[in-house]
Amino acid sequence: MRVLVQRSGPASVKVLDEVIGKIDYGLVLLVGFTDGDTREKVEYLARKVVNLRIFPDDEGIMNKSLLDVSGSVLSISQFTLYANCSKGNRPSYIEAMKNDEAIKFYEMFNEELRKYVNVEVGKFGADMDVSITNIGPTTIWLEK
Question: Over the chain, what is the mean pLDDT?
């Protein structure tokens, strides 16, 4: 499982020009799954995301978590996190989990996050327009 975490101001996701999810402040997560992922990995990374101290304290030091700042999550499924470009210029996605299983893991991950914070989501498998105001910019790669 891979999660690309971006600290964000206003962010939204559109499908067919309709906004289906948006946050004012928090984290945008690009989330991908591979064979061998487990519920334990999902639970671990959800806890890691909400406790990741990447928000500034009063001195401007990244010392606060999403929980400390009452932020939200915009979660976007992204199988392309498992792109392999080692054999040429056309990425291979064979390491990405197949759709029927990946959607179950994506929903499980979002439900785990909802135990802690407000979560908005994109539409699994859809072409989405994602707008992110990356603050910092701060981008963190998590993998389990």
Answer: 97
